[in-house]
From TrEMBL, chains A, B, C, D, E:
One of its GO terms (molecular function) is cobalt ion binding. It comes from Sulfurimicrobium lacus. This is Magnesium transport protein CorA. InterPro entries: CorA_cytoplasmic_dom, CorA_TM1_TM2, Mg/Co-transport_prot_CorA, MgTranspt_CorA/ZnTranspt_ZntB. Mediates influx of magnesium ions. Keywords: Cell membrane, Ion transport, Magnesium, Membrane, Transmembrane, Transmembrane helix, Transport. The gene is corA-1. It is found in: Cell membrane; Membrane. GO terms for cellular component: plasma membrane. The chain crosses the membrane at residues 298-318, 330-350.
Amino acid sequence: MVRHALKKRSKKAGLPPGSLVHIGDKKTEAVTANVLDYAEDHCSETALIEIEQCIVYRDMPSITWVDIEGVHDIQVLEKIGQCFGLHPLVMEDILNTDQRPKIEDYGDYLYIVLRMLGNGSESGDISSEQVSLILGKNFVLSIQEGAKGDVFEPVRTRIRSNKGQIRMLGADYLAYSLIDAVVDNYFIILEKIGERVELLEETLISDPGPQTLHLIHNLKREMIYLRKSVWPLREVVSGMQRRDSALIRESTGIYLRDVYDHTIQVIDTVETFRDMLSGMLDIYLSSISNRTNAVMKVLTVIATIFIPLTWIAGVYGMNFKNMPELSWVYGYPAVWVLMIFVAIGMVIYFKIKKWW
Amino acid sequence: MVRHALKKRSKKAGLPPGSLVHIGDKKTEAVTANVLDYAEDHCSETALIEIEQCIVYRDMPSITWVDIEGVHDIQVLEKIGQCFGLHPLVMEDILNTDQRPKIEDYGDYLYIVLRMLGNGSESGDISSEQVSLILGKNFVLSIQEGAKGDVFEPVRTRIRSNKGQIRMLGADYLAYSLIDAVVDNYFIILEKIGERVELLEETLISDPGPQTLHLIHNLKREMIYLRKSVWPLREVVSGMQRRDSALIRESTGIYLRDVYDHTIQVIDTVETFRDMLSGMLDIYLSSISNRTNAVMKVLTVIATIFIPLTWIAGVYGMNFKNMPELSWVYGYPAVWVLMIFVAIGMVIYFKIKKWW
Amino acid sequence: MVRHALKKRSKKAGLPPGSLVHIGDKKTEAVTANVLDYAEDHCSETALIEIEQCIVYRDMPSITWVDIEGVHDIQVLEKIGQCFGLHPLVMEDILNTDQRPKIEDYGDYLYIVLRMLGNGSESGDISSEQVSLILGKNFVLSIQEGAKGDVFEPVRTRIRSNKGQIRMLGADYLAYSLIDAVVDNYFIILEKIGERVELLEETLISDPGPQTLHLIHNLKREMIYLRKSVWPLREVVSGMQRRDSALIRESTGIYLRDVYDHTIQVIDTVETFRDMLSGMLDIYLSSISNRTNAVMKVLTVIATIFIPLTWIAGVYGMNFKNMPELSWVYGYPAVWVLMIFVAIGMVIYFKIKKWW
Amino acid sequence: MVRHALKKRSKKAGLPPGSLVHIGDKKTEAVTANVLDYAEDHCSETALIEIEQCIVYRDMPSITWVDIEGVHDIQVLEKIGQCFGLHPLVMEDILNTDQRPKIEDYGDYLYIVLRMLGNGSESGDISSEQVSLILGKNFVLSIQEGAKGDVFEPVRTRIRSNKGQIRMLGADYLAYSLIDAVVDNYFIILEKIGERVELLEETLISDPGPQTLHLIHNLKREMIYLRKSVWPLREVVSGMQRRDSALIRESTGIYLRDVYDHTIQVIDTVETFRDMLSGMLDIYLSSISNRTNAVMKVLTVIATIFIPLTWIAGVYGMNFKNMPELSWVYGYPAVWVLMIFVAIGMVIYFKIKKWW
Amino acid sequence: MVRHALKKRSKKAGLPPGSLVHIGDKKTEAVTANVLDYAEDHCSETALIEIEQCIVYRDMPSITWVDIEGVHDIQVLEKIGQCFGLHPLVMEDILNTDQRPKIEDYGDYLYIVLRMLGNGSESGDISSEQVSLILGKNFVLSIQEGAKGDVFEPVRTRIRSNKGQIRMLGADYLAYSLIDAVVDNYFIILEKIGERVELLEETLISDPGPQTLHLIHNLKREMIYLRKSVWPLREVVSGMQRRDSALIRESTGIYLRDVYDHTIQVIDTVETFRDMLSGMLDIYLSSISNRTNAVMKVLTVIATIFIPLTWIAGVYGMNFKNMPELSWVYGYPAVWVLMIFVAIGMVIYFKIKKWW
C-alpha cells in the first residue's frame, strides 16, 4: 500500500509546483458532481452535467455542498479550481491522492485533507481513499477519490429530511458533519478489526501455526497504516478548533471538541490493538517453542529408554565362548525382567522429574 | 473489553451529534435517582420517583447531589437533560459509556467523565463503569452506568453524619470528594492486582507452566486497560486545578492538588507493575528454556553413554570365524570391565565439564 | 515493596481528606522530638518531652530545627500540626509514608517530601523511609518515618561545631543542607549497588547460572524503585529554585543548583546501571545458550561417530549362511581397520568444519 | 558511509575555524560553474571560465543562479567566497561535505545545507552528496559536491522554457524550487527502496536464508542513514517558513508549506519502512526456527520409530540357549508382525498428536 | 568507569558544600600552571612557580589564559580560587572530577565543565578527563585533571604564531576555541571507534565467536559513556549562545553556533553507532544459532540414515531357527543392496526437502 502511493509520486518529480497530474490509478468512469443546496427552509439536489454550473451556487446565501467523485479527469478539476478560485497547490494536493490528513488556511477558504477508510474487499484488507474538503464562506466542496460508495450518506439524509439542526447551521457545521462521518466510520473499521483480533486470539490458543504469525503481522501492518491516517487527523481537528478563522463559528467549536474526543478514542484503540498484537506475538512464539519442546522431549524420552535396553540385548548377543548367563535356564527370562525393570525405573524417574 | 466498547459505537454511526442512543448493554432494572440535599445545618435524602422533581433542587441555595444509576432509559435521561439544561453532546456522552476520562467546560457547568473500576467477579477481572459528573453552581449530578454498588458510600456517610467539613463547603468540594473516592478505589484495585502479581511471582519460581504465561499476559492486558483509565484522569484533575472557572473555588484547589498526587501515584504503580510483569516474562521464558535444556542434556548424556557401549557389544556380536577374543577365557569379563570403564570415564568427563 | 505501600493505602479509602490514619507498620517506640535552636552566636539542643514545648521556638528569631522520629503516634503529630499551623492535608501526607517526593507551597511554609534510602539489611536490599520537611520563616520541621538512624548526623555536627557557614544562614539553607544530605546518601547507596553490579559482572563471566539471572532481575527491580524515588526529586529541587517564595532567599539558589546537579548525576547513574544490567541480561542469555549448544554439539558428535560403527558391527553380526567376509582370515582385523578409519575420518571432517 | 564521513573530519582537528580544507574524496576534474541569469523577459546561460566573473551578476536586478559543481579546488571556492562576501564559517561548511541539513541566517544571505541522494550504483546503495545553497537578495548560489549528475535539471528546463511562474518570482522561489527538486528526488529513492522491500518480502516467504537477513539489515541501515538526512531537513524548511528574513517573501511561504508537507511524507514513509523491516526480521527469525524445528522433528520421529524396532531385533539376536521363541515355526514372521505393528502404532500416535 | 566515579563521591558525603576534597585518583606530580598572555601585538608565555603570580594578569587589559594541570593539590587550588574570586561551589566542582558537562553563570564569570576524551591506552578504551573553564572579562582559566597531554596544543600554536584571528578577539573567543578543540577531538575518538566497529563487522561475517559478543557489548557500553559526555555538552553550548551575559560578545555567537552543529553531529554519530551495534548484535545472535542449527541438522541426518540400516542388520542378526532369507544364496548381497537403496533414498529425500 505504501509502495503504491510512492510509485505514483515519481510521475510528478521535476514538474513545477501546481502542475496538475493525476497520480492515482487510472479510471474510466466519468467524474460525477452532486450539488446539495440548502437553507433552513429549502433543500435542492442536482447532479451537475457541466461543472461550470457550480459558479451559480458560489455566491448564493444558502449553504451549498458540492460533492465530486473522481479526480482522474483533470479538465473537470481545473474548471472547479477556477470556479472556486483555488490555489494551484490545493489543486495539486487534490490530485495527489496519497496526502496525509492536514489543514491549510488560504484566507478565503480552509483546505482539509482526510482519509476515508473502506473495508469492502473480501480479504478484509483496509482500503483508503483521500477526501479533500474546501470550506468556504457558504459552501463546502468535497472531492473524493472516487471509489464507489462513501460514508456521507447519513449526512445527506439528515440534510434532505431536515433531521437535527444541520440545515439551521452554516457551512462550518456541514464540514464538521463530514469529518464526523469519516471518524464515525473509523469505529466501524476498528470493530471489524476487533473481530479479527478476537478470532486470531482464539486460533492462537486452539491451533497456532505459521499462518497465525502471518495474520498477526498483517494486522500489525494495518495498525501501522491506520495510525498514519489517524494521528495527523488529531492535529487537523485541534487545528480547526484553535484557528481564529472567520470561517469557523464559535458555536461549532463544541462539536469539533467532540470529534476531537472521538479521534483520541480511535487512536487509543489503535494503540491498544498494537499492544494486544505484540502480546499475541509473544504468546505465539512461546507456544510454538513450547510445542516443539514437548514433542522433542517425549521423543527423546522414548529413545532414551530403548537405548540402554538395546545395549543389554547387544551384550547377550555377543558370541563369547565363555558366557555363563547364556546357559542358565532362567537366563533369558531374567534378562526380560531386567529390561522391564530398567524401562519402568526410567519411566518412573522421568515422571518424578516431570520430564515426561 | 476493548472490542465490546467498539461494538456499541457502530450503532451510532451516521446519526446527528447529540442523538441519544444508549450503546451499553441493555438492562431492565429501572433507573434510580437519589437526591441528597444538604447545607451546614440540614441534610435530607429522597429517592425520586418522577425525575422532574429534580427541578425543585436546582435553584435552592443548599447543595444538591443527584445520583442517578442506570443510563439505559433514554426518556429519563432526556428529562434530566432538560431539567438541568445540559447540552445535547453532554447527553450523548453520558449514554456512550466508553468515554475516556475528560473534563469539558460548558460555562454554566463542568462536565467530567471518570471511570470507576470494580473487581467484583470471581475471576479477578477488572470491570469498568463510566461515571459522569455535572458540576453546577450548587448541585452535582452524578450519573453511573448502573452496575450494582458504587464507591461513593463513604461520601454519603460523611454528608449524612456531618463528618469532616464536607457540609460546610460547596458543590466543587462535593465533586472533589467523588473524584477522590474513585481514585481511592484505584488503590484497592491495585492492591488486589498486587496480590495476584506476588502470587504469580511465587508460582514463577516454584512451578512455571504455560498457565503462568497466560496469567502474565492477562495481567499485562489489565495494566494496559488500567492505564487507559488513569492517564487521562491526570489531565482531568490538573485541568480542574488550572481552570479559571467560577465553579471551582480557590480553597478547593489544594484538595485537587492532593487528588492529583494520588493519580500520579496510581500511574506510578501501574508503570511499576508493567515493568515487573515484563521482568517476569523474561524470567519465565528463560526458566522454561533452562528446564527444557536441563532435560535434553541429561537425556542426551544417557544416550551418549550407551551408544559406545552398544557398539562394543555389537563388535563382539559379529560372526567372524576368526575372532580370537571370543575364545579367551576372560574375554567376556574383560568386555564387561571395558564397558564399565568407558561408562565411568564418560560420566567423570561429563561431570568435570559440568555438563551433567 | 510496592505492594506493601499499596496495602497501607486501603485502610484510608473513604475517609475524608485530612483524616489522620497512620498507614505504615505499627511501631511501639515512643516518638522522639529533638530541637536544635541556633543562631550565629549560640546553639542549644533539647530533647522535647512534651511536644507542645515546640511552640516556644516557633516565634523566636533564631533558627529552630525540630527533628521528629516516628509518625505512628497520631496524638503527638496532631499537637505538632496545631503548634505549627499545618494544613490537614499536610498532616495526612506526613502519615501516608508512601508519598513520592514533592514540594507544595502553603504560603506560610513549604512542604517537601523526600525519600531517604537505607542499605542496612544483610541482603543488600534498599530500604526507603519518607522524610517530610516543613520549611517556615525561621524554622525547619523534619519528620522521619522513624527507622533507626538517619543521614542528617553530619548536618547536626556542622551546626554544633559551627563548621561552614550553616549557622550564619537562614532556615532555607538548613532545608537545603538536609536535602543535600539525603542526595549525598544516594551516592553511597549507588556505590554499594555499583559493587554488586561489578561482582555480578565477574560472576557472569566465570560462572553464570540461574542464580545470576535472579540477581540481575533483583538489581533491575531496585533500579526501578530508585528511579521512582529520584526522578520526582529533580522536579522538587528545580521547583524550589524557580519558586518565588519569600521563604527561599536568592543566595540559597546557587546551592540548590548544586544539589540539582547532584540529582541529575544520580539519575544518570541509575540510567547507566539500567543499561548495564540490560546488557548483562543479554550476555547471560547468550552465554547460557552458547553453553548448552556446546554440550549438545559434542554429545551429538560422539553419538554420530558411534552410530555408523554400530551399524558396521551389526552387519557382521548377521547370520546369513553365505557371508564370505566372515570366513576370511583377516576379515575381523579388516573390520577393525575399517571402523577406525571411519571414526578418524569423521573426527577429521568435524574438526575441519569446526563443529567440534 | 558513516565512518567515511568521520575520517575526513580528523584532517581538520585543531585548525582555526574558517580554515578551508577540503575533506571529501580528492577529485581531479575541474570545478565547473554555470550561471543562469533570468528575469521575466530574458534568460541567459553562461559557463564561467574565470570564477571572478560572478561579480558581474551579483548586483544586477535580474535573478542569478550560480551553480558550482565540485568543492575540491580551494582557490576557486575562496574566490567565490570573496565575490559574494561569505563568512569563513560558511566557506568551511561548504568544504566539510558531511554536514547535516541546516539553515543559518547571516543577515545578507541565508545559508542552507541539503543532502542530495543518488542511487546510481549497481548494488542499489544510496549515495549522498552535500548541496549548499546561498540565498541572497537576487541570487542563489548552489554548490554541489560534484558527483556527476544532479536533480536540478527540471528546474533549469523550467527557467529556460519559461514554464510555470518561476521566472516571474524572486530568488527565494528559485531556492524553494531547488529544495523541492531535492525532496522530490527522495520520493524516487524511496520508490526504489520500496521495490527492494517488496522483493525481499517475497523472498522471505519463498526462500528465506542467511542472505535475507543481511539484506534486511542493509536496508535497515540505509533507513538509519536516510532518516539522518531527512529529519533535520524538516527543521530547515519549517525554519525557512518561520524566519522573518527579508529574503523570503510571504508569497513563497505557501510553497514552503507544501515542501514541508512532502518532507513529512518522506519521514512517514521512512518510518513505515523501518516498521516493516522490523516485522520482516521477526518473520525471518521465526520462519528459520520453524524450518529447523520441522526438520529436527521429522528426523527425530524416524529415529524414534527405529530405535524400539532395533531393540526388538536385538532381543532375538541374543544367544541364550533357552529361548523358546527362536524355535517356534512362526517365531520369525511373528517378530516381523510385531515390528510392523509397533511401527504403524507409533506413526499413528505421532499423527494423532500432530507431531509429524 | 561509572563505579569509579561513584566511589570517589562517598568521601565527601556529609561535608558542608564548598568543602575542598579532591576525590580523584591521588597523584604525586606537582600541579603545573602555564600562563599565556596575549594581545593583538604581543604574546608572552610563562610557567608559574608561585600560583599567586596569577593575580598580576587578572586585571591587565590583555587576554590571559591560565592553564592548570592537576587538581590534586588543594592548597594550590585554594590560592587560585582566592586569586580569581571563585565561589566555593565552583572550587568544589573543579575538584569533583566526575561532573557532567554544564555551564553556570556567576555574574563576574561563567563556569563551564567539559569532558575531554583520550584514547591513549593500548586496549582502545576511552579515558575521560574533566576540564573546567572559567571565563572572566579578559581571562580564561582552564583546569585539567592532569592526565598527561591535552587537546589544546593547536590553540596554543595558533596564539603563539598569531594564526587566524584568535589574538584579535576576546576571552570569549578563546573559551570557544578551547571548547571547539575538545569537540574536534571527539571526532578523532569517534573515528577510532568507527575503525573498531568496521573491524568487528568483518569479524562478525568471517568468524563470529563469544569474543565478538563481548566486543559488541564493550563498544555498546562505551557508547553509553560517550553519550553521557556529549549530550549535556549540547545544552552547554546552546546555553552559551542564548545567555545574555556580557561576557560573550555577539560576534562569538556565530562560532558557538558552529560548535553546536559539531556537537549535534557527534551525537548523531554516537546514535548511529548504537543503532549499528544493535543490528550487529542481532546478526551475531542469529548467525550463532544458524551455525548451531546447521551442525545439528547434518549430524541428525547422519544418525537418521544409519539408524534404519542398523535395524536391518539387527533383523538378520536374530537367531530364529526358521529364517529362510538367511539360507538364500543371494540373501547377504540382497541385504546390502537393500541397505544401499534405503541410504540413497533417504539422502535423496533429504536433498529434495533441502534439509541437508
